[in-house]
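Sequence only, no structure available. Ideas?
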Amino acid sequence: MNEAILVPLDGSPLAETALPAAVTLAATTGRDLHLLGVMVGPTWMTGLAWPQMGLLTQIPDQQIERSAYQEYLTGIAAGLAHAGPAIHTQVRQGDPAGEILAELAEQPALTTVALATHGRSGLQHIVLGSVAERILQAAPVPVLLVRGAPQRGRPTTGSWCR
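Reply:
I predicted one. Tokens follow.
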């Protein structure tokens, strides 16, 4: 893989607001795009009510979610095909910030991260934390933060780029 820009996407219109800046940066620098989806996985509640049932249903649910995530990333990549840069996709599972940092550590060709941020502050920031802040503090490469504001009625399939 050539040098690439990592773009973490969670399936939301807000996360997709980083795509135009990432595409522009890739086009002007000749880098590829690396779209990363991170499945958060089952919630901590899954096994509390009936631990054995949680274990039995967890694997098929994860396979369905991984497949849906890959389909989502493939759709975004198809919509960006006209933009020029080569596009790679990857789905990981775990803590979003931790998995983004792990991807950076495992893929030396990733030289920049383009990431949307909610721009939370105050109590919301304390309670919900910030993936963007964790990436900004720990990433070994430059981070481009795009403050996103999802548009009402905007589709989540990346149709903005078609």
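The longest helix spans residues 51-80.
Hope that gets you unstuck.
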